[in-house]
Amino acid sequence: MIRHPTAPPSVWRPVNAEAFLVGVPHYPEHVDESHWDRDAQRMAEAGFNAVRMAEFAWHLMEPSEGVFDVSLFERAIEGLARHGLKTILCTPTATPPRWLTAAHPEVLRVDGQGRRASHGSRQHADPASPVYRMHSRRITRTMAERFRDNPHVIGWQTDNELNTSTSVSYSDATLREFQVWLSRRYGTIGALNAAWGGDFWATAYRSFEEVVLPLDAAPVFPGPGHVLDFHRFLAFATARFQAEQVAILRAANPDWFVFHNLGRLDDIDLRDFAKDLDVLGCDLYPLLFDEFQRTGSAAHAQALYMDQVRAASGNVVVPEQQSGLGSQPGFSTMTPEPGEMRRMAMASVARGADGLMFFRWRPAHFGAEIYWMGLVDHDDVPRRRYAEARRFAGEMRDLAPLLLGTRVRMDVGIAGADFDNGEAHRTYPMGLPSPLEDAALLHRHCFERGIPCGFIHPEDDLSPLKLLYVPHWTIWRDEWTERLRLFAEGGGTVVLSALTGTRDAHGQVIRTPAPGPTLGRLAGVAVEEFGRLAGPGRDGLFEGFGRRPTGAAPAESASRRYRLAVGNQEVEAGHLYEALEPSEGTETLGRWSSRWLEGRAAATLRGVGAGRVAYLGTYLTPPLLPALLDGLMAQAGAAPLVPDLPAGVEASLREGEGRRLLFLLNGRGEPADVPGVPRGEPVAGDGERRGGGWRLPPHGCAVLRLDPQGA
What we know:
The chain is α/β, with parallel strands linked by helices and 711 residues long. It has 3 domains: 21-183 and 219-404, TIM Barrel (Alpha-Beta Barrel); 412-636, Class I glutamine amidotransferase (GATase) domain (Rossmann fold, 3-Layer(aba) Sandwich), CATH 3.40.50.880; 649-706, Golgi alpha-mannosidase II (Immunoglobulin-like). The chain is built from 19 helices and 29 strands. The strands form 6 sheets. A 9-stranded mixed sheet has the order 13-12-14-15-22-21-20-17-18, with helices on both faces. Strands 6-5-4-3-2-1-10-7 form an 8-stranded parallel sheet. Strand 1, helix 1 (36-45) and strand 2 (50-53) form a beta-alpha-beta unit. The longest helix is centred in the middle third of the chain and has 29 residues, at 224-252. The two termini are 32 Å apart. Mean pLDDT is 95; it is low at 547-551.
């Protein structure tokens, strides 16, 4: 169903699939065996072709150490196969059995207060622990050997949402492994002390055995280099934990495809993490993302997350797509309205999913997710969610020949998928927006207007882009500058932002004027001075450190507002200012227009070959973004897929191999009229053409095949 990739990881890479994967995660261990055949029959009738199982069943497969019994799953797999369903198995390492944690409590995570994790939850074991890694390899090897010749097992998922419950541990095992990792990275303790700035606050060490873990507020802040390397190590330990399992699976049966289902992305270096996999998977709960991210738009939260993951290695599979209300004891999502579940699934496809499974087949009657609903209700009756999944499966069956092999159109690229830059911000945030928070403003601006936008790493192929925005990447590598120069010379537009290139790989501030020698020459600008500004409507002092604004900002803060002018528009700046010194031949695109900065350059533009490089000496804000970037995007040729896209309607384009598929998705609970839709043949979905536009029903979807010669 999914084959090994034939191309290296890239945001532009489709999944190498022979059919669109569609199905459900299933837990046969949660119901009496008398339900199994009826379950399989209804799955087949829904048009599903695969089932995922066993990610939490280690205790059943190894009820005591060294004693194995996989017969329950052998029977379940055979029962599904009788109805034409293939099985994807999971390594069950997210939930170790009690005999393991009782005999080896040293495998448990330890939090920042020194509390050892307890059995009774999940992800309580430390992937850095050598003891836990040994047991994880053993259960993986046992499962791989038992199912290596089973023709109904087609692939594997590693673990389950690694690092989603927590990503950190301060255990003795973590400390020892961190020390070993540091010794290999630096070679000598002197090199480590230089990298971390050990002469500040007497933080130098005499040996790697003296190095401690960087605890928060113990009593104040640890050094940023120390923190950055700790999180690099956590990402390394997570990737190593997975790589050991993947090696066992590939040795057992090289025809299996292997993926992981990402949840939260904490301490996961996506590009490194993906290199052992055939495809990345990401679990999508849009109504949950909206609650946690506070974006105000579940549709945008879904698109933002998918685009982040796709930036690492290309199109994805979705092992868990929200089907209904989702909850644990401490939270609950809203419930998808009729049609909304299918629309959210179609949005995943529009953003690069080449396979999708609805979570889950039936809800549990016990445990910490009894109200996490599935396609079949607690009373074993399939209702509207099952009907929507069945319709979606039929649409994907018919659409697959046109869809598979295409990639998501992206005119505006945002620099992403770089672990170091996300972590560098966390080591010293100063209350400023993170690179992702800043990028999300531009991403949402494009999303709401239907401008094709996503994330891309500078080492990827930039040529399909029209504009690339770099969101405050403090760590910059000189080789990336050459890639940006070539992109600009070929006609592209690059937009660099404040603080870019101001720190080295260890998190130390560079000793030359920002944005550094290579970027400075490319942009034709140097930063003479920078300083902090309050965010819009904020007081600035403890901004970003957990304090919510109450009432009006203090008078002193309000008196320190700075404004800048772009063309004939004047807007208030936020978060940070830079006083720029343009080089000869560099145009001033925007100027500071108040207080002592009045008249100084705030944004610049320099021609490079057939393209341009802009530099913005502040952070994006909702009023500044359109004033500055709308013109740059238009001049670069980045335009909406559909003009005048109505609020609440998403537009996305997948293209490749002579095919162009336009997705129109109505996120509103009422009909939507979309004007100016290009002529095209409807190949999936619903709605109808009205004059020069398209009418979508509430939560309706339409997929149109456009002329391949179009723009």
